[in-house]
Amino acid sequence: MVNATAQETKAEKAKAKTEKAAKDKAKKEATAVPLKKDGTPDKRFKKTDVPLKKDGTPDKRFKSKENNASAKGEMKSAEGKAKSAANKAEAKAKKEVKERESKEKAPKNNKDKVTGSYKGKKVFTGPRGGKYYINKNGNKTYISED
């Protein structure tokens, strides 16, 4: 009688052990994240809605749901494009004649041709086509038209 009860308890323990192992296996399959050697989850294998390859990694040919980061990126891109367009329009509106001052003194006997006026001064055209006027210091100040 004692042997029979001892065998029954061993059988129950073995059955409980196999059931527990089956539950653990089912639990691991439910998480579907492989574990590393030390037992921690491998972060390379994340749960995704995209199909998985044979090795368990997500197939990158299929896109998952749009994430928040890409939406923010697109929003910032649109803002940047709008700002760029505004800056270009402002630059076109500001397009003025630029000046560049030369350290070269203007000769008293100026043989260059007078072609107009700028800021109340006579505008001269030099031998190579540059336009300038004589500033209050007596220097040539070139006028660029870009």
Write the layout of secondary structure elements.
Layout: H1 2-31, H2 68-94, E1 98-105, E2 113-118, E3 121-125, E4 131-134, E5 139-144
Antiparallel strand pairs: 1-5, 2-3, 3-4, 4-5
Structure, explained:
A five-stranded antiparallel sheet has the order 1-5-4-3-2, with no helix packed on it. 39% of the residues lie in helices and 20% in strands. The chain has a domain at 97-144. The protein has helices at residues 2-31, 68-94, and strands spanning 98-105, 113-118, 121-125, 131-134, 139-144.
Helix count from the secondary structure assignment:
2
- Strands, count: 5
Distance separating the two termini:
112 Å
The largest β sheet comes out as: 5 strands, antiparallel
Q: Classify the beta-strand content into a percent band.
A: 15-25%
**SSE order in H/E notation?**
HHEEEEE
Radius of gyration: 42 Å
Content-based structural category: alpha+beta
* Helix coverage percent: 25-40%
Q: Ranges with pLDDT <50 over ≥5 residues?
A: none
Could you give a quick summary of the protein structure above?
By secondary structure, the chain is of the alpha+beta class. The protein is built from 2 helices and 5 strands, in the order ααβββββ.
Could you list some keywords that capture this structure?
5-stranded antiparallel beta sheet; about 40% helix
